[in-house]
Design a protein that fits this description.
By secondary structure, the protein is mainly alpha-helical. The chain contains 10 helices and 2 strands. Helix 2 packs parallel to helix 4, helix 3 packs antiparallel against helix 9 and helix 6 runs antiparallel to helix 7.
Amino acid sequence: MKTRSHKILDHPILGYFILFVFALIFMNLGTTIDLMIARFIPGYGTELVTPAGTTTTAIGIGAAIGALVAIFIYMLWFRPDFQDILSGKGFVKALLMMLPALLIHYVGSAVSMITLGTSSVFLALLKATAPGFGEEAMFRILGVSNYMRTAKSEKKIMTIFWLSSVFFGLFHLTNILSGADIAAALIQAVYAIGIGMILGAVYLRTANAWAVILAHMSLDFLEFCRGDLGSTGGIMTGMGIGDWITVAAAIVAAVLALRLVSKDNRPAIMELWNKKWNKEGSV
């Protein structure tokens, strides 16, 4: 079966960034829902002081809905070549691949809650949906899958692995513009590269979007349960003991990720994505 041509998106790197912007636009559209929710749920929004004055920002379930809309549009656009973007196949396998890094990270979050206090679990759950669905759509689900649609050799795998991981980490430097401590933001960016590596590697190995969404959501949920990050909307103002444990988790994640995308595993990755895109036996 021959896959259809999609012109601009057939350029894998350019397509990655186009799809990043596509998902980002829908996330931002979804935040209009979050601003409405903030009017009724105290603490859902965050007050930011800017040179122009004080503004209220809110990002959570509305942004997640926007990301889901982007995913479904992407899925419809590529039908019938790629129909099961939200398939549950490989879910348990994907979680087991991430489990060591996740457990260490959970310990770090718990230490932060013990040392820095806690915030609303309900608000944390609502807010965590945004990075869980939104950032995964932006950095992995759309761009990585589109890249693997065009990939014709195993050598190409590491390009998207490093691109999605490093870009994910560096993007967190934008937190400085929202008042984050510069040193903490730099460390957070390095940490995010490690976390991005494991999420990217697992997505490449399993093509399971639900696993990376829920794993990402669980990490941010526990972090938003912290007293400090719960009140700042995730903006770090310093580094505590728990934060250094989560940095260690990111290092473990990076090591695991490199093993998952090692040369020996790349044939299986290509085979998986060829099946996902109906490329096997194409003419």
